[in-house]
Structures are given as structure tokens and as C-alpha cells.
Design a protein that fits this description.
Elements: H1 3-6, H2 14-23, E1 30-35, H3 44-47, H4 55-68, H5 80-89, E2 96-100, H6 103-111, E3 119-125, E4 147-149, H7 156-160, E5 163-167, E6 190-195, H8 200-209, H9 214-217, H10 221-233
Antiparallel strand pairs: 1-3, 2-5, 3-6, 4-5
């Protein structure tokens, strides 16, 4: 399916989204991302100022995280890649951008804010040479190109959300972090479908029927509280 077949179209139903994803290739590795707005596909560490080289800052942040989490050493027991995964899923700005292998999870994230503005579901077909080889790149702060990162499942949220990542470098050539939409080095284009603001709650109700909701995606009391809030205030 060409990018022009996807861009500027809207998700009409969860079933349609799965069908269109299948058309991209049943045997291909596909990644999906849901956003509540069409902001650049940049990791959180780079969104405010993409031209800033944050390598030194990121190293200091990760070191400080390890210092403060020393009471629970198992949480950050892996290498720097594993530590970044934990940091990313619990709110720290990193050079990782969240994706999922489940299109319904992406649709949930594109709809969950319930604001009237459109959300978006992004799709990326993963070529073999895009996947990070951790045996060759042990330091996440020295990667030379954007890579797809298949993480070790080291926390419950990552498992629940079928999480993968793209890992983004600061490009010395461009002197900035490069938006995936504008990254000419990627062998595959990022495709996009809109989610109408007026359809968001309808999508959430459908997703809830198949077990995609706050309880499933955010294991623990936080997710349960968020689900009960939605169930009683927005579920129609």
C-alpha cells in the first residue's frame, strides 16, 4: 500500500485498521504509534529543541536515575539500553520513541485524550537493516542512524503495550534530531491515518470490548483508577 493510500484518511473502525495493516504485509514486521496530535515523530528528549545535542545531558540523567533507584537495583540491572526502556516507560525523557506491534493499542493512544482535535495512527514497515543489533551497538548514545529497537520485556507496561521503540541519534550532519517523517535515510516511509475527534470515544468503547483499556495497558492501581474514571464519566 502506498503512502498516498493512507495519508489524510481516517480510521473508521478498529476492524478496518487491522484490515489495512494486513494489506501492508501479513508476514512483515509492522509497528504502530498513536498520538493525540500530528506532532513531529521525535523522542521526548528532542521535542523542545531538536537542534540541541543532548548526549551529555542524557548520560547524566541516566546516571542520576541509577543513583536514585539504587534501593531497587533489579529495576535497572541491565545495560544502558535496558535502563532507557525502564526510564522511558516511567516518564523520563529519553531518545526512545514508543511504538507497538498491536494496531489496536496505537488506536487507543490516539483516542484516549478525548479532545475534539484529531488524533493520528502512524504505521512503519520494518526493513531488516533497520533493526538494532545490540551486540554491535552497546552504547545507545553512540548510534549513528535511527534504529528500530526490539527490547527485552523488563517491565509490565512494556508487555501490556506490546512495546517496541525507535532509537534516535543526534545527527551531526543535520545538526539536530531528525523527524522520522523527514528522515530520507529510512528505507520505509511512515504512513499515517487520522482519528476524528468526534470518533474517539466510540473507538475506546469498541477497544474496551476486546480488552484494550487503561487496566490492560497500565497494570496496577493507576490504570484501574483511570479506567473507572472513563467508565463512569465517558462511557456511553
Amino acid at each position: 500500500m502506498r503512502a498516498s493510500d493512507m495519508t489524510s484518511q481516517y480510521v473508521e473502525s478498529a476492524a478496518e485498521l487491522i484490515e489495512q495493516a494486513d494489506k501492508l504485509g501479513v508476514r512483515s514486521q509492522l509497528l504502530f504509534r498513536g498520538q493525540d496530535c500530528n506532532q513531529p515523530l521525535l523522542p521526548k528528549i528532542a521535542r523542545d529543541k531538536p537542534t540541541r545535542n543532548t548526549v551529555d545531558l542524557e548520560r547524566k540523567m541516566l546516571s542520576e536515575l541509577r543513583r536514585r533507584a539504587a534501593r531497587s537495583p533489579s529495576a535497572l540491572a541491565g545495560d544502558d539500553w535496558d535502563a532507557l526502556v525502564v526510564a522511558q516507560h516511567f516518564g523520563m525523557a529519553t531518545r526512545l520513541l514508543d511504538w507497538t506491534t498491536n494496531p489496536l493499542v496505537a488506536l487507543w493512544f490516539a483516542s484516549a485524550d478525548l479532545r475534539p482535535q484529531d488524533g493520528f495512527v502512524f504505521m512503519l514497515k520494518v526493513a531488516e537493516d533497520m533493526v538494532l543489533d545490540r551486540s554491535k551497538v552497546t552504547d545507545p548514545f553512540t548510534i549513528g542512524s535511527t534504529k528500530v529497537f526490539k527490547p527485552a520485556i523488563n517491565n509490565d507496561r512494556l508487555l501490556a503495550q506490546a512495546g517496541w521503540f525507535t532509537a534516535h541519534p543526534y545527527s551531526k550532519k543535520s545538526r539536530k534530531f531528525v523527524d522520522l517523517h523527514k528522515n530520507a535515510a529510512l528505507p520505509q516511509k511512515v504512513l499515517m491515518k487520522g482519528v476524528r475527534g468526534k470518533d474517539k470515544n466510540r473507538h475506546l468503547i469498541t477497544l474496551d470490548r476486546v480488552g484494550i483499556n487503561q487496566v490492560a495497558l497500565f497494570p496496577g492501581l493507576e490504570g484501574t483508577c483511570r479506567y473507572v474514571d472513563w467508565l463512569f464519566r465517558h462511557h456511553a
